[in-house]
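Exercise 7.
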Amino acid sequence: MSPEMLKRDATSARKNPNGLEGSPVPQDNKRAAQSAVFSSQQLAEPGAAPTLIEDVALHEAPSRSETATPERPLPNGAAHAGEIELKLLVDADRMAHFNAAPIIAANARNRGARKHLKSVYYDTPERALRRGGLSLRVRQSGARFVQTVKTEAADDPLRRGEWEASVRSLAPDLTLAMPFIPAKLRDEVESQPLEAVFTADIHRHARIIDLPSGTVEVAFDQGILKAGDRSMPVSEIELEFKSGSASTIYEVALRLAEHGAVTPSIRSKSARGFDLAAGTPPQARRPRKLRLDTSVALDDAFATILRSCFHHLLQSLPAAEDGRNPEGVHQLRVSLRRLRSALDLMRSVGSLSNLDALRSEVKWLAQSLSAARDWDVFQLQTLPAIAEACPSVAGFDALEQVAARRQSDAYRTAHQALDGRRCANFVIGLGGWIEARGWRNDVVAEDLGRLAEPAVSFAERILSAQHAKVLKRGRRFKLLEAEELHRLRLATKRLRYLSEFLLPLFEDRKSARRFSRRLADLQEELGAFNDMAITASLLDGVAAETPDSGTAVAAIAGWQARASIGVAPSLRSAWRDFTAARVPWSRQARQD
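Solution. The predicted structure, written as tokens, is:
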């Protein structure tokens, strides 16, 4: 789908697990963040009530309840504006080349403006603001000081609320920030002194780019984050949408990717700074629960589902690239499976040729991560549990050494894929395709009208068909062989993803919650058998390669064979519970 990205010269994060003392994890200097952030066109005078910059979504406006809301009226003349940003982190020694890229040189209005921005980020000693999803920053630009409070929307990591006010120095004014701090946090924040957690010293060169599709401000940021004696370089390009089509920022990002290595991500300077101060790796979060109105059209439902998958992917990338937190690779693989299921779901509308290309990229990236996740599970769960249960068995130490080497090799393969141009262009291109709703251009005329139909009618058909497939594959359940159980597991997994996507259309009924819970239990039980098969494939040939581990390998095989006998009753119970559950999309359930 896109040209090959230039190879990045980066050391694996796993080789430098601390990422501190002036030698941060190299990927942190190359990650990109994509977030909708908002700044004012006009700031209040020092000491005045803060200006509210209303939250405007990357794709759709949120409700006020999704962000911190001031509990007093805005001052007269308060400005509000919405901004859409896409950040790309790049190698510092390549920044000048990006600034001279053809897309910039041919379309920039002028030479742009340069600023030196000094920022201090504050929180309580117990990090009450960060735990509450807020950040408090004071930034100096020239002789002016601006205090900013930012919040995250509950269901969209690309959307943030932002409130700004002028202050007299780099010291924060808590009185101006308090209206935007949730009531449940105020006592804790007021009872503890604020402290400077880290600083950001950034040199910015901003230019305006005009393209036929829209206007984008491109800011080239270089500098450093400091937290005590720890530091981390910053080298990133911010693309801010100004007018025209919001997909223009993705267009510019892809054009820049042709000129050098870029990496998209969801990680902000604030997140990097707090993790730097704490010495912790990036977090990897589970996907956020979808929200779909029962009257939504199919086209809008597709957009919401795809954005959910895209957001989860972006949130998972930094932790997977960093490598210190195994949950990063796991959640990235989950995001790719969800995305693949969403693309397959769209096939039900008609023939969409572009889906095959996207699906191919998803499959390639997921396969690149597969071995790393498998060895993580073996190293963190399977091996220690059985070794502890069998203390008299020799060979576990030797087996652990072999597993560690193979795990390292698997992570090296994963990082090569994540660091490459192919991955970056896939992620950026996917974002642009979703923003522009590119599937509309790929649907044949006779199927186009189906996108306007109620999504709930579509959901009934799709869920009913997949549910019937699961029941069919589970016939005569007690007699199913291993291969048949594997096919049942795949069908169950697909039904679970479809349920996550489509059950919100049937509101938050008891039947939906009960069905989802029993479906999840069944998938977990079926997954236990699959984990055993994966373990057997991982250990194939290990004993021959390292004879000292032979006894331990045999012990693991025997232990899991014995465990499978115990799993069978719980698996049959999970199957009975699932088949007895009322489907939420049935006419009877909808009358509950």
